[in-house]
Design goal:
Layout: E1 18-23, H1 30-42, E2 47-51, H2 57-68, H3 73-97, E3 101-105, H4 108-118, H5 123-133, E4 141-146, H6 149-157, H7 170-186, E5 191-195, H8 200-217
Parallel strand pairs: 1-3, 1-4, 2-3, 4-5
This protein binds thymidine-5'-phosphate.
């Protein structure tokens, strides 16, 4: 295994050690996040696992507002970006600047998919805010768990108490899925597109291979 200890000769752009995990509700991403962090740690990395919206005191408070109260699509978008800026300044960027890795459960691709496509605001509107909140900063690697909304729905239905986004009609989740797939098609080098209907062991193996490739690519 290679060592991921940052050396003086190895100055990576911030985004190189920032990995995000995305997918529609019920696609099963959460069960893989710990495994991603464990694999990085096995290479010697220090890893911060976090989520959006959330990850800070203010961000978690915004998450509560966001998930529990109906609001306009613009308000949703502005709230997640407010939480995001707080998260970047207090958690993500400091960790990356210390040479650590950050694995984040959702980021701006979620806003493009959910608010841009799902709510119909348009990707350009979301990208304009992204340009303000995190200019030039993106994950270098994004795992996208893709699943048909009707299958995802049966998985989510097993949970107790759906939040207001999970409870949206199937058409909404279809638009969200489409939004993610458009994004992934536009940036194939960044996205690792996963068929979330595959058995968990197959997904684990694909993720592990992609992570190892990423580590080699960034020279870690
Ligand atoms: P989670 O349950 O996967 O943590 O995500 C919380 C919910 O928030 C999920 O339904 C997706 C939604 N969401 C958005 O609508 N826009 C965003 O920008 C983010 C980050 C999440």
């Amino acid at each position: 295994m290679t060592s991921l200890e940052p050396g003086p000769d190895r100055v990576l752009p911030r985004g190189a050690r920032f990995i995000t995990v995305e997918g529609i509700d019920g696609a099963g991403k959460s069960s893989h996040i710990a495994a991603i962090a464990d694999r990085l740690r096995a290479h010697g990395a220090t890893v911060v696992v976090t989520r959006e919206p959330g990850g800070t005191t203010v961000g978690e408070a915004i998450r509560g507002l966001f998930l529990d109260h109906g609001m306009s699509p613009d308000t949703e978008t502005l709230l997640v970006f407010a939480a995001r800026r707080e998260h970047l300044e207090r958690v993500v960027w400091p960790a990356l600047d210390r040479g650590e890795w950050v694995v984040c459960d959702r980021f701006t691709d979620a806003t493009v998919a959910y608010q841009g496509h799902g709510r119909g605001l348009g990707a350009a509107r979301v990208d304009a805010l992204a340009e303000w909140v995190h200019p030039g900063f993106l994950p270098r690697l994004t795992f996208l768990f893709d699943l048909a909304p009707e299958v995802a729905r049966t998985r989510v239905a097993g949970r107790s108490g759906l939040d207001r986004i999970e409870a949206e009609a199937q058409g909404f989740h279809e638009r969200v899925r489409e939004g993610y797939l458009v994004r992934a098609a536009a940036e194939p080098a960044r996205f690792c597109l996963l068929d979330a209907a595959l058995p968990i062991e197959v997904l684990r193996e694909t993720i592990a291979r992609r992570l190892d490739r990423h580590l080699a690519e960034v020279g870690a």
